[in-house]
Automatic annotation (TrEMBL):
Signal sequence coordinates: none
Active site per UniProt: H262 (proton acceptor)
EC number(s) stated in the UniProt entry for this protein: 1.13.11.5
Oxidoreductase in keyword set: yes
Sequence positions that bind Fe cation: H299, D305, H335
Protein name: Homogentisate 1,2-dioxygenase
Keyword Iron annotated: yes
GO biological process, any: L-phenylalanine catabolic process
Organism of derivation: Cytobacillus firmus
């Protein structure tokens, strides 16, 4: 979010002496994007964040894609995705391209280290579970329905406070932003936006950790994960200010835009990034023209792949999908309501569906691991018989 936030203790002027009670200096760190030309924050540490005791490569980050075959609509049922490991270990990526990777995480163990993605932003949609993000910017609580935006370079970990946890994961190679058309020239969200600044939650509490010991941060950069060992707690910031920080937004606070006739998918847009967008389908009233057709019209994704992650409710244009289903409707193929769904929608007043959509403007590649959860006859579900 592009608005100014300040937490903790910071000096009156940036880049000036800021001293501890014992007379020593705090260590100022600029965390910025696109060199020095985009949004940034200044963080003040008890310890110098450059002091690393040890570095060790953990693994490469690579996905094994299926071989290209006939283009078709795809359906993957993720609800029974295996649980296991902490929040990072539990991630299972099912499709990706040069701009974004999409998958599921069902962690069942706490992280005993911290994580930093040095390759791009992350968007975590909380389907099930509650807890908090512990980051260099402070603590941020979350619950079902929350989008969590974690900027590139943020040191954090997920602390689970419930038995079951399920996340829809969006790993981005670019910044994740609110749509430009919803913002004025100063960055403020406009009146026609389906949300406003008061709907966004920034870190709630900053408690600097002044602890010595052995602490690990796993960093993703240059296609691999490396473990770095520090002699002090990595969350030692006494204060920070700026425009770059993690934040939360609940899908339940998205206010749907409706009309006399069916509105196109851009009215559901929630975030934008380089070569893809994220949309929220939420409970809403249907169109109110006396002869309106509530079900969406058939449309051709001539320049984008459409991914839908089904969260809850009755998705009125589909049959055979369930909680945790992921459908992929690739570019070049028209798609729309299943047979009988158009007629069934006539006269309906509202829908209770809840889903997250990702439209990518370059084709997605399917990771081979997704074959284990695929519904192979999904393409034929549009046949009348």
């Amino acid at each position: 979010m592009a608005y100014y936030v300040k937490m903790g203790n910071i000096p009156h002027k940036r880049h000036t002496q800021f001293r501890k009670e014992d007379g020593g200096l705090y260590y100022e760190q600029l965390m910025g994007t696109k060199g020095f030309s985009s949004i940034q924050s200044l963080i003040y540490h008890i310890n110098p964040p450059t002091q690393i005791r040890k570095a060790q490569k953990i693994c490469d980050v690579r996905y094994e894609y299926e071989e290209k075959d006939a283009l078709r609509h795809r359906h993957f049922k993720t609800w029974n995705t295996e649980t296991g490991g902490d929040f990072l270990e539990a991630r299972k990526i099912y499709m990706a391209n040069e701009d974004v990777a999409l998958g599921i995480a069902r962690p069942n163990r706490q992280m005993d280290y911290y994580y930093r993605n040095g390759e791009g932003d992350e968007l975590l949609f909380v389907h099930e579970g509650s807890g908090k993000i512990e980051s260099i910017f402070g603590e941020l609580s979350f619950g079902p329905g929350d989008y969590l935006v974690i900027p590139i370079g943020t040191t954090y970990r997920v602390v689970l406070e419930s038995g079951d946890a399920r996340f829809f994961i969006v790993e981005s190679n670019s910044s994740i932003l609110t749509p430009k058309r919803y913002r004025n020239e100063f960055g403020q969200l406009l009146e026609h936006s389906p949300f406003c600044e008061r709907d966004f939650r920034t870190p709630e509490k900053l408690e600097p950790k002044d602890e010595k010991g052995e602490f690990e941060i796993r960093v993703r950069a240059q296609g691999m994960i490396t473990a770095y060992t520090y002699d002090f707690h990595p969350l030692d910031a006494v204060g920070w200010d700026g425009y770059l920080y993690p934040y939360a937004f609940s899908i339940h606070d998205f206010e749907p835009i409706t009309g006399r006739v069916h509105q196109p998918p851009p009215v559901h847009q929630t975030f934008e990034a380089h070569n893809y967008v994220v949309c929220s389908f939420v409970p809403r009233l249907y169109d109110y023209h006396p002869e309106a057709i509530p079900a969406p019209y058939v449309h051709s994704n001539v320049d984008s792949d459409e991914v839908l992650y089904y969260v809850d409710g009755d998705f009125m244009s589909r049959r055979g999908v369930e909680k945790g289903s992921i459908t992929l409707h690739p570019s070049g193929l028209p798609h729309g309501p299943h047979p009988g769904k158009i007629e069934a929608s006539l006269g309906k007043k509202e829908t209770r569906e809840l889903a997250v959509m990702v439209d990518t403007f370059r084709p997605l590649y399917i990771v081979k691991d997704a074959h284990n959860i695929e519904v192979n006859d999904y393409m034929s579900s549009w046949l009348e018989n």
